[in-house]
Each structure stands twice: as structure tokens, then as C-alpha cells.
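in:
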């Protein structure tokens, strides 16, 4: 009988221990489930926050692109108006020269008037960064010259060099805007 009591007591202890283990396991499972839910909620919040930031940045970039495009168009328009405004006095001078040529009897005064207008016009273009290429006697360079014709060179030194300018070439701020049309010696 004593063994039955001991066995019953040990079975009770084992059952109690098993129940304690089950309770602990249930608490662990609940804790893990809660932490998973918290992690999912945290991840979803983070996702929503990042998605919101992405959408805002995308909209901000679209606005920036539209604004800079409009500013670029405005800048180009105003730059052209600045050049044209500077050229208006030359136009006025040409009109005055044409009017005075109707009554002029001296050729020298007409020549002088046109030379003054030419000098003024050239000065305005130079102030805007326009430079004339010097090409006569230089070695032909396809980066800045356009060969219109090849002729026999007058001397051996002139072979492969520019003999004559047909049309001047121009730089605008050190960038070629018109190639010089030239005759090259062969």
C-alpha cells in the first residue's frame, strides 16, 4: 500500500509538472505569437511610412522636372531677347544709312558710314563671345574646316594647308558654331 501511495503521489507530481510545462509552453507560444503580431504591425507601419515617402519624393521630383523645364524655356527666350535688344541699335544705324544714301553725293561718306556700322555690329557680336577663325595658311583640320575644293599647292609648304577662305568660320565661347569653308592645297 505504501507503494501505491508513493506511486499515486509521484503520478500527481508528474501530472503537476506536466501541467506546469504545458502552461509554460502555452505562455511561450502566446508570447511568440504576440511578438510576431508586433513585428508584422511594425513592418507594415514601416512599409506604409516608406511608401508614403516614396510617393512624396516622386511627386516632388515631377514638380522639380516641370519647374526646371519651364525655367530653361524662359531662360532661352530671355537670352535671345537680350541679343536682339543689343542688335537693335545696329538696325537703327542701317536704316539711317539707307535714308542718308538717298541724298548722299559723296561715296566716301557712304563707305565711312557702313564701316562704322560694321565695326559696331562686330563689337556687339564679340562682346557676346563670337570669335572669327583664322584659317589662311593653317594646316587643314576637319574639326574646324570644311574643304570646298582641292587645288594644286603653289609651293611644297602649302600642301595640306588652307589656301583660301570661301566662308569664315566662327567660335562662340570656344565652341565651333560654323565651320570655315576653305580651299585646300594638294
Amino acid at each position: 500500500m505504501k507503494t501505491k501511495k508513493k506511486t499515486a503521489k509521484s503520478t500527481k507530481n508528474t501530472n503537476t509538472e506536466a501541467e506546469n510545462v504545458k502552461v509554460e509552453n502555452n505562455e511561450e507560444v502566446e508570447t511568440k505569437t504576440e511578438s510576431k503580431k508586433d513585428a508584422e504591425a511594425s513592418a507594415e507601419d514601416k512599409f506604409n511610412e516608406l511608401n508614403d515617402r516614396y510617393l512624396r519624393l516622386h511627386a516632388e521630383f515631377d514638380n522639380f522636372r516641370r519647374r526646371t523645364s519651364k525655367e530653361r524655356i524662359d531662360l532661352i527666350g530671355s537670352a535671345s531677347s537680350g541679343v536682339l535688344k543689343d542688335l537693335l541699335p545696329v538696325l537703327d544705324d542701317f536704316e539711317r544709312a539707307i535714308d542718308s544714301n538717298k541724298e548722299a553725293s559723296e561715296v566716301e561718306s557712304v563707305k565711312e558710314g557702313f564701316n562704322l556700322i560694321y565695326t559696331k555690329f562686330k563689337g556687339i557680336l564679340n562682346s557676346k563671345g563670337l570669335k572669327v577663325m583664322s584659317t589662311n595658311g593653317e594646316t587643314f583640320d576637319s574639326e574646324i574646316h570644311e574643304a570646298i575644293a582641292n587645288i594644286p599647292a603653289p609651293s611644297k609648304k602649302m600642301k595640306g594647308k588652307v589656301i583660301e577662305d570661301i566662308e569664315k568660320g566662327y567660335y562662340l565661347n570656344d565652341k565651333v558654331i560654323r565651320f570655315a569653308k576653305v580651299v585646300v592645297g594638294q
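note: The mean pLDDT is 84.
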